[in-house]
Automatic annotation (TrEMBL):
One of its GO terms (cellular component) is peroxisome. It is found in: Peroxisome. Gene3D superfamilies: Oxo-4-hydroxy-4-carboxy-5-ureidoimidazoline decarboxylase (1.10.3330.10). It is an enzyme of class 4 (lyase). This is 2-oxo-4-hydroxy-4-carboxy-5-ureidoimidazoline decarboxylase. Belongs to the OHCU decarboxylase family. Pfam families: OHCU_decarbox. Its main location: other. Residues 7-163 form the Oxo-4-hydroxy-4-carboxy-5-ureidoimidazoline decarboxylase domain. PANTHER family: 2-OXO-4-HYDROXY-4-CARBOXY-5-UREIDOIMIDAZOLINE DECARBOXYLASE-RELATED (PTHR43466:SF1).
Length: 173
């Protein structure tokens, strides 16, 4: 996608392309559209992430709640977004045995009960063993620290998704 094309996309097109950079939060892409033009990938990233950082805590928690559990019911039902499906698959979460799935479900439930939002981790930087390990470790972290960690993971996921989108078009920036 060349720069001219990216910056000249109409509103609907822009939200179609960038609407799931932050999982199930197309509103963020819609808001960013009003701040175009962007100079490059780093500039786009900066705008998306500054928006998240400026939100009040309740809204930041709302962003986290838009994320499906890792190896959760949405994966089983086949209702994940295409991006999430690819990421969870890359971490081997689509081929867990029953025991591993149960253990993750229990840890996910404990995490959600403790923090009020789901456990979020950039699955593409991980694998099935590391996901459980990290979940068990973060379950013990203080709430304020955990919110920061989880938002950092949202940004890692968004960075990878943005990079994919811009890489998909050889004539990009
Ligand atoms: N819960 C959670 O982390 N989900 C996200 N992680 C990821 O890499 N893709 C997702 O959908």
């Amino acid at each position: 996608m060349d720069k001219k094309k990216k910056n000249s996309m109409d509103f609907g097109e822009f939200v179609d392309v960038f609407g799931n950079v932050i999982e199930r939060c197309p509103l963020i892409a819609a808001k960013k559209k009003t701040q175009r033009p962007f100079s490059d990938l780093e500039d786009l990233k900066k705008h998306f992430f500054a928006f998240i950082d400026a939100l009040p805590q309740k809204s930041q928690e709302g962003i986290l709640r838009c994320h499906p559990d890792l190896a959760g019911s949405e994966l089983r039902r086949g209702t994940l977004t295409a991006e999430s499906q690819r990421e969870q698959s890359a971490a081997g979460l689509t081929s867990l045995g029953a025991d591993e799935r149960l253990r993750l479900a229990e840890l996910n439930a404990q995490y959600r009960a403790r923090f009020g939002f789901p456990f979020v981790l950039a699955a593409r930087f991980s694998d099935r063993a590391a996901v459980s390990r990290e979940l068990a470790r973060r379950l013990l972290c203080p709430s304020a620290q955990e919110l920061r960690t989880a938002l950092g993971e949202v940004k890692k996921i968004g960075s990878l998704r943005l990079a994919d989108l811009l890489r998909a078009d050889p004539a990009k920036l």
